[in-house]
Task: structure prediction
Amino acid sequence: MYVAVKGGERAIENAHRLLAHERRGDRDVPEVTLAQISEQLSLGVDRVMTEGSLYDRELAALAIKQARGDMIEAIFLIRAFRATLPRFGATEPVDTGQMQVRRRISSTFKDIPGGQILGPTFDYTHRLLDPQLADGFLPEPPATSDTSPVAMPRVTDILGRDGLIEASPRADAVLPVGDLTREPLSFPADRDLRLQNLARADEGFLLALGYSSQRGYGRSHPFAGEIRLGEVEVEFMAEDAGFAVPLGSITLTECQMVNQFKGSATEAPCFTRGYGLAFGQSERKTMSMALVDRSLRARELGEEIIAPAQDEEFVMSHSDNVQATGFVEHLKLPHYVDFQSELGLLRKLRNEFSEAADASSPMQEAAE
Amino acid sequence: MNAPAYNFAYLDEQTKRMIRRAILKAIAIPGYQVPFASREMPMPYGWGTGGVQVTAAILGPNDVLKVIDQGSDDTTNAISIRKFFAKTAGVATTTATADATVIQTRHRIPEAPLHGGQVLVYQVPIPEPLRFLEPRETETRRMHALGEYGLIHVKLYEDIARFGHIATSYAYPVKVNARYVMDPSPTPKFDNPKMDNCPALQLFGAGREKRIYAIPPHTSVLSLDFEDHPFTRYRFDAPCALCGAEDSYLDEIVTDDRGGRMFVCSDTDYCETRQSSGHRGSENAAPHKERAHG
Result:
């Protein structure tokens, strides 16, 4: 007897209830707090803020908790909330040259004005599991020393003074910076939109694409000109007051790649740039982003487009993990009616095939 | 913490205005895919975010909403979307096709004929009918602009050469108002003729792909075919086992692991309406008697 697909409503409610139960886990284990997530899983929070395109540590921590640690699900929660926020305007461009630097390294010069600052990094740790961390470990307080305020010009600015690297594009007063969350994307897309897309893009996707460009799929000969991490001031131009109002400071990671040079009969050869920027400490993301940004400039720089990382339509259409996971996972939804249609067609084709086989085979045997 | 507060039908008014402008343009150019700045919605891409945004933009407090998935009001996703609007817009909901002013659908067009004043909102995964022939948006937009549809006819022809039939059974391409080739969303081709000269407004929303398109009321919608291979509908040749309908699209239900099958209406409202007015199929010919099964 046919059992109708009824009771879906109760099934959903019970599934949600079970999910909440599983999320909580063993109730004898203390519940994790948002402050714990924000403080102790801070790089996860940084990633959710970056790909969620919303700078709010508390909400990002909440999203991670609600998503049971599933990062793409957490990013999705943040995006869906962000989409409902009203827009008051855009801040002034942040000046990373004025960053309160906590970490800053260059792989192109041994020493640079302001010095190399290693800061908090996994880079030179030995990846040995540390049993001390399992329970109740209190680390030493960080080493400190007196500092004198010293200018830390960006490495690319130093190269730029001698014209060895192309100039950064200037802000265009007439043409506002695009926003692909407000205007639908169309191709070809300019660099502002490409960078926005890459900033929101899945870290793993960009990592693989950047890696592929290093392995020869559209080589760009990159050097890590500079990676810097620290706090920058955010200011908002208040039209009524007539001056820029400080809103506070945010943590950013910036990566400037120095890439193979270009030149022509009319232009002196110089290095080219690839740029990466993300909220919080997100070095893998910004380095990958800078590699892919440079690869995607192939059209602008007159390079042959032969590799996936250079193909803006391919990269930009598939970089968003919220879109990608939605479409992949929607295959879980029912497809009864289309499948029924395919089933009908396939049965018909198979019938015709066997009828044709039945009709032709005895005759052929007789003829032989 | 920034506690969220939401507008009527979830979306803010600025976003709704932007979507309505896209809808108006879509109605003015039947079958043309209008780009719009699709928002992230609180359900995943692929679950009907395009349809949900279109519905949110057109819904008023006096509307009566019906939501179906695979023809049914009771599938989990249909329930989830219906509850979403019941909660965020407080609108009345119904399962009766005739009573609804807005019907959001995934993969089906209701069997009961739609009437003037109704809006059918389709959820669309891939709005571009040429996508599987040409993956680049830059190319397909140019092909639409020039009305260059040779490629899709070649594809249909190749089907005939290989299989003896056009091997597209759902998302069967149509030509709207004798101009644009359009994807009807993954509805079975059985439903295609219902789109032609329909008195209701048909709106199509693709959230992930950021496209809206429309078929205004009483617009010609022709399924692509050839003179010697005319378009045909497919329907499993049996009456519905519950209501006996001979004209409805059927779901195939596998009843055991020995090849047992039964066929019932995919449109649950149509089926239930017929049953309540006394129509019976083979499975419930005598509804008041206990039936033995073995």
Notes: Confidence is low (pLDDT under 50) at residues 287-294 of chain B. Chain B touches chain A through 74 residues (CB under 8 Å). Residues 13-28 of chain B form the longest helix (16 residues).
